[in-house]
C-alpha cells in the first residue's frame, strides 16, 4: 500500500507555494478555517488569498469544528475539495455533504476502544475516516494499536502528534494517509526543511 500524506495547519503563502510546487507534493493540504483556539487558524480574508494559490496535484481541505451555517456559506465558493469535520453527528455531516457537494473527512477523536466504534455512525456519510487524538489545538498522541485491527472499506487517515523521525513505515499497516502538522514546525511555525524531509521520506517508503 502506498502511504499518502496530508500537511495540515498551513497558514503562510510562502509555505503553501513550497508545498504545492514540491517534486512530491502531499495528496492533501489542510487549513484551519473556524477554530481560533488553534495557532494555525486562518481568518477568512487570509484564507481567500491562500486559496488563490493553485493547488496543482493536491486536494485542499477545510478543517471545520462543528461549523455553523454562516461559516459554511462564507467558504462555499472557495476551491476546497474536502471538508474535514470534527464534532458533527452523522445527520449534520449528511446535510453538509448534500448541500455543499464536498467530499467528507470525518474526524473521530480517540482515547480508548469505545471511541473507535464511533466510526460505525458515519459509514454512509464519510469518504475518509480520520482517527485523531483528542488534543485539537494541542499536539497529542493516541495508541495507534487501537485501530490496527479495523477492516474498513474506506480510506483511513491517521493524525495525532506524528513526527518526521517516526517510523512511518509502521503507519502503512494501519492507515492509507498520514496527517502531520506540528511535526513539521519549528518554534510553532511550519519549517520548509522539515516539510522537504517529510515529503521525500513519504516518497521513498
Topology diagram in text:
Layout: E1 4-7, H1 13-20, E2 28-32, H2 44-50, E3 59-65, H3 69-75, E4 82-86, H4 90-100, E5 103-109, H5 113-116, E6 128-132, E7 155-158, H6 168-171, E8 177-180, E9 185-186, E10 189-190, H7 192-204
Parallel strand pairs: 1-2, 1-8, 2-3, 3-4, 4-5, 5-6, 6-7, 7-8
Antiparallel strand pairs: 9-10
Describe this structure in words.
With 205 residues, the protein is of the alpha/beta class. The chain has a single domain, classed as TIM Barrel (Alpha-Beta Barrel), CATH 3.20.20.70. It contains seven helices and ten strands. The protein has an eight-stranded parallel β-barrel with strand order 1-2-3-4-5-6-7-8. It has a two-stranded antiparallel sheet with strand order 9-10. The relative contact order is 0.18. The model has no long low-confidence stretch (mean pLDDT 93).
